[in-house]
Amino acid sequence: MSANMYKYDDFDHAFVRDRNIEFADQVARRLSGDITEDQFKPLRLMNGLYLQLHAYMLRIAVPYGVLSSKQMRKFAHIARTYDRDFGHFTTRQNLQFNWVKLAETPKILEELAEVEMHALQTSGNCIRNTTTDQFAGAARDEHSDPRPWAELIRQWSSNHPEFTFLPRKFKIAITGARKDRAAIRVHDIGLHAKPEGFDVYVGGGMGRTPSLGHCIRTGLPGEQLLSYLEACLRVYNRYGRRDNIYKARIKILVAALGPDEYKRQVEEEWARMDQAKVDAPVAEIDRLKSFFPDPEFKAAAFDRVAFERAQTADAAFARWVKNNTNPHKRDDHASVTISLKPVGLPPGDASSAQMDVMADVADAFGYSELRVSHEQNIILPHVHKGDLYELYRQLDAVNLSTANVGKITDMIVCPGLDYCSLANARSIPLAQDISQRFEDAKLSDKIGDLQIKISGCINACGHHHVGHIGILGVDKQGIEFYQILLGGRADEKAALGVITGKGLPAEAVPAAIERVVRLYLDLRTSDDERFIDTLERVGRETFAGALHEPA
Amino acid sequence: MKLLTANRLTDGLTLWYTGTLEAGTWGEDAALASRLSDDDADALLIVWKLRETDVVAPYLIPLTETGTPVQREHVREFVRANGPTIGQTADAIASAHNRADIFEN
After folding, report:
1. What distance in Å separates the CA atoms of residue A532 and residue A468, rounded to the nearest whole number?
2. In whole angstroms, what is the distance from residue A159 CA to residue A196 CA?
3. Of the candidates A194, A153, A144, A115, which has an alpha carbon nearest to the alpha carbon of residue A284?
4. What InterPro entries does UniProt report for this protein, alphabetically (chain B) (predicted)?
5. Is B89 a domain residue?
6. Does B84 contact A428 at a Cβ distance shorter than 8 Å?
7. CB 3.0–4.6 Å: which of A64, A529, B27, B92 could bond A132 by disulfide?
């Protein structure tokens, strides 16, 4: 069985092959000394290759997080053959290998091309991988499938000559559901696909200057999406600042002009351009949509009694079903999240053996399809409920059955100073300390939906601005300190967290979080009132005192 | 006193300079890194910055009197010398070289 996803045509294959040949030549010239590191660095970054603290890191694009079992198996093979037997899934729904060798990179890219993958637009000041709802095409609350639009944007933005050297990187996210699982308000452009057209949000972002995107258009017809995006990018490309890297993102331009003036300029540009030259023909949009049909859903009758009996007999399975499945548009199916947040290992990591098992279960129970979520988990979007128990057992055998999705231990965490040359402080060890403190399943279930997000520097790869509890690592004269932010959220009621209290040393953070959580449990009016609801009801300041040890 | 460090071009691994101004070699074990006088370190840095087919981005790490990286660089250089402090590859460097972590204090 092959997954229902976009398939390369001759053009795509030739495009990736040509690029790989070009990069192989650039690598050879760097190794022989024909080009300098200064000349080579921008070239390798345009092919997803970074030099980190300990080794080269290759970031591979997983377009809008959609992955086939065949591609997952290729990741396992690369991890085993060229890396140290594991890979790391990222908040951009991509995959990073942390220990690749420069000389072997062309061979890795060749292997990836065999399964229609590459590492383009995973770095550099271009339009990056468009991210979307990990439950696209499956979720019960979806009104419009974002995948064909994400694919349209991918094709339009790939090597787009006008947007290859933007003032800074550019990130687009799309959701098509009532609940925003793609964090669209904290992207350079966020799109909400609705039956009546797109709502377009511009100027969101995290990093040094966090801001929420402003809605500058509603009801934009899909047939005009590309020309409107092009107008948005063109105004940014023309006026975005290039003199100061910290002020170069579109959010700074939108704030400087004001959203109304930015919108006016976009509309003026849009009216002036030859839209028909930019927009995809209706037939092309239909062709892209044809790559994403429903799978041929398994017809077996769903034995509800047997399913409930299995849950009664196996409490761990029952808990996994409750925490790790999402409502599917069909009553007899569910979307399953495989948590990559076990206690004891870095969030988002998977070994080659685990990747192989995920590919196998996708073939056996999930129509060969997988997704990467921006929360750094893996999803099987369509699973027949009658298969859930067997799926659970196979995942459990390789430590992939952690039942903590959306819970306090399901943290977004950047690689931090354990790997990243930009980081100021470590993130992963702190995540582990927090994970261990809330390891007790009963306690974490009682706490319910609570999102902690940790970044090891101001660049906010760990999304700390939109964690219900955000944690930012800073460097105070060589000592790691952590600032706590409260009240952020990345959903349809997006809000930015606010730094609360004084910075804490790493060893004080887990206890501080536990005091905040205990206070929440005391204050909540019912089990259904989530942490973020209580915090918004009583105010952030109520929790400020709990962050510090009582005097 | 200073250490000279870089990443190897071919595989990116962290390297440490062992030797003198006149002769030396690069190795993966930070425990063997030479404590160089400031003058020797500055001179070696100039030499190795030009040898781009061997190493990438060489730089100097200032040391305290006890021979460990100064506080400002301490966490970063501890992690570079010993590998990631957590996860699949934690402790790999120490066990590969049959020793304990270095720059502990």
Report:
1. 6
2. 30
3. A153
4. DUF2849
5. yes
6. yes
7. A64
Please indicate whether, in this complex, the C-beta atoms of A432 and B86 are within 8 angstroms of each other. Answer: yes
CB contact under 8 A, A54 and B57: no
- What is the distance in angstroms between the CA of the first residue and the CA of the last residue of chain A? 63
- Range of the structural domain that residue B49 is part of: 2-96
* B9 occurs within a structural domain: yes
Q: Would you state the structure tokens that stand for residue A244, as one six-digit string? A: 């100061």
| CB contact (8 A) between residue B84 and residue A54 | yes
Q: Is A30 on the interface with B (CB under 8 A)?
A: yes
Nearest-Å Rg of the Cα atoms of chain B is 13
**Domains defined for chain A, CATH in brackets:** 146-289 (3.30.413.10), 412-547 (3.30.413.10)
pTM above 0.95, yes or no: yes
How many structural domains compose chain B? 1
What ipTM was estimated for this complex? 0.96
Among chain B, residues having any CB pair with chain A shorter than 8 Å are: 7, 9-14, 52-53, 56-57, 70-76, 79-80, 83-89, 92
A-interface mutation test, from B9, B49, B70, most A Cβ less than 10 A away: B9
B7 within a domain of the structure (yes/no): yes
| pLDDT per residue as tens digits for the range B30-84 | 999 999 999 999 999 999 999 999 999 999 999 999 888 998 889 999 999 999 9
Do the Cβ atoms of B86 and A52 come within 8 Å?
no
| Residues in A touching B105 (Cβ below 8 Å) | none
CA angle (A304, A307, A309) in 5-degree steps: 110
Q: How far is CA A425 from the centre of its chain?
A: 22
Asked whether the predicted pLDDT for residue A551 surpasses 70, the reply is: no
Task: Output the pLDDT for position A333.
Answer: 97
Question: Does any domain span residue B104?
Answer: no
Banded pLDDT at B105 (limits 50, 70, 90): low
